[in-house]
């Protein structure tokens, strides 16, 4: 197996630098669109054969050094009893949103092997298919990010409802976060038992918080997840989107790898948190529109900055955009391998 991703997670410098991309299994690939034509998004997530097929596509087509499970961060919320749907042009919808103690009482803990068996069956298929290829990354949404969807009822720009609960009804907020945290721990534990070799916690919306509120409303729960999973013995990645102002706190989360979005370059990040860390990132996804020579220069800059870290895993600063041509994604991966060898 190509294990450079796992070795980098453990702090070993590798040649070449390992690369995988968030949303590498996605709408930009014609092969994905072909599968998507057979089923809606949630059905794909819940059909192990389809989820495994699209997980494998970027490994076989693009040459990435790790696969990431095809699923969605909101799957555990539905298993808890929240009403989840995906609406065209609107994204995920939670109906009704959680706004009261009565709403919270409708939710319950999750037994992953009973409530989300399709996720674990997908992992079992992938472990067999990937045994001589690359490692498999499992993932979950971080507790604060999941709470955001649950309380807001979907995507939002203001985050007014979750912040209102946090400030106005802290006891209810803590109860919500305690439940989600325990669900996240059991969900990721089951993924590890099923065979994933690393996990990533996505805190997509924690960057909207001030440092104090991040500490009290997000970090303590993410830390509980990492502490609980530590004994499982797999590398753990924490990715806080738009979290440049929080990096020193993220470093103390208990994760083995710190993911960076594209807003803070690696050199600046290392000055803030020290060089004795494993960094993951962080090419702006839109830079994949550049012509080859200019893309080569930008990738080279990131690789050079990454050399100052304990170890570096190359990734985008967010997911692959649907508008990016697949050949540009493949070009970027080839350039990363070439320039870091």
CATH topology: TIM Barrel
Q: Low-confidence segments, ≥5 residues, pLDDT <50?
A: none
Biggest sheet character:
7 strands, parallel
Approximately how much helix is present in the residues? 40-55%
Order of helices and strands: HHHHEHEEHHHEHHHEHEHEHEHEH
Placed side by side, the strands forming the largest sheet appear as 1-4-5-6-7-8-9
- Give the number of domains: 1
- CATH architectural type: Alpha-Beta Barrel
Q: Name the overall outline.
A: globular
pLDDT average, as an integer?
A: 97
Distance between the termini: 18 Å
The computed structural class is alpha/beta
Give the DSSP E fraction (strand runs of 2 or more residues): 5-15%
What is the CATH class designation?
Alpha Beta
Strand element count: 9
Count the DSSP helices. Answer: 16
